[in-house]
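Mods, move this if it's the wrong board.
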Amino acid sequence: MPKILKKLLIITLTIAAGLAVSRFALAQGLDLGMNYGAAIGLGDADPRDIIVNVIKIALSFLGIIAVLIIMYGGWLWMTANGDAAKIDKAKKVLTGAVIGLIIILSAFAITAFVASKITESTTPGEPAETCDAGNVGACSGCQRCADLGGGTYSWVIDTSCSGCISAALVAISIQPPQAYCPIASDNTTIRNAVIRIYFNKNVDPASVSSDSIIIQESSAQCPAGALSPVAGDFTINGKVVEFRPAVGTCPANACDADKCFNENSTIDVEIMTTGSDRVTANGGVEQVQDNLALDEHIEFFTNDLIDCEEPTIVLDSSAQVCIDAVNDLGAVSSDDSGVSQVEFSDNNGSFAFLGGSPTVVVPCP
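Not the wrong board. Structure tokens:
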């Protein structure tokens, strides 16, 4: 039994040592294909986390075996009845089992240390580059330079950046975006707008409520006055959370729109990143964290318009779209009141998208 345990320990320690050496090469620029996996409906767990968990489970199993061997050695000693040969055998069993247990605990500690260092080295920090008008759209790690309007540029988390693996659940975009005073025609929003919040992971529908995402309004603008809750409904579609005002809040209009915010108002959107009422993922295991590159508390201004005109969209790529392949899709879209997001869908049984995803959603910056 000790010989088998010894062999298993050697194999486990070899794997742990290899993981420790490899962590330096995983610091940045690693593309494990997780974005493609998400596109075909696979899980988005980090492969390195899976490996570490397998090693921990194996070490836990070996630890149980070591404890059982110690109990076996104790039983041999207690039943020796003074027989020197049996006592000597019991001592050898106990000595080997204790040494094995020490090695197992050391291996477990090494694995935990290496896992923490891997997470630390791959968690996105502040980019070294400057985010300005000259590099809008450029990626640095898990962040992309974005134009927030009003001459403001900031890094925002974007897990679609090549080589990005984001560990924490965070919001990566809020539409409509933050508006700035003074009021102007280009920084107000139509009354029948839809609030869309994009996360980097699929969120738990049960965690989305008026307590975890607070939508309020004020009848005043620049500055806003007292805030009051906005009645409405949330819709969850994977990584996207949408909010629409209650039915019957629009005046008569040409397209029978029936879900509107109040006109000429300030709409206040806040994603809770502290406390118990937070958006979660993976069955409540992960709570949304503060994205240092995104303000989770924004305001936008409504005007007195209700948008009834259909937007236009033209594919800007003449390349062939292939079945069961990674296709680069692009489009030029326009609308009289602005474009919030573009959705690519397949009318031929969803064959053009990996895994049969019916829709690919691209939020506009």
